[in-house]
Design brief:
74 residues; Phosphorylase Kinase, domain 1; 5-stranded antiparallel β-sheet; 1 helix; 38% strand
């Protein structure tokens, strides 16, 4: 699957452009799904509280790695 343009590499994940208005945080294959789900829950709570953070989206599996979609903030 085409991941789009790489935005930034990281220790636990790499960021890519995704669909219109979105980015994909693609975690390395050793990063636990439970930790990604926790990040998704925390992000949802923070966004719902009205703090200025990008909205989180779905968890996807791409090329054997789990990813978390976020709203893109330019």
């Amino acid at each position: 699957m085409d991941l789009g343009i790489s935005i930034a590499p990281g220790r636990t994940a790499d960021m890519y452009t995704w669909q219109e208005g979105q980015v994909l945080k693609l975690f390395h294959d050793w990063f636990k799904l439970e930790d990604i789900q926790y990040e998704q829950r925390i992000g949802s709570a923070i966004h719902a509280a009205g703090l200025p953070v990008p909205a989180e989206g779905d968890i996807l599996q791409i090329n054997g790695c789990n990813g978390l979609v976020y709203a893109r903030v330019d």
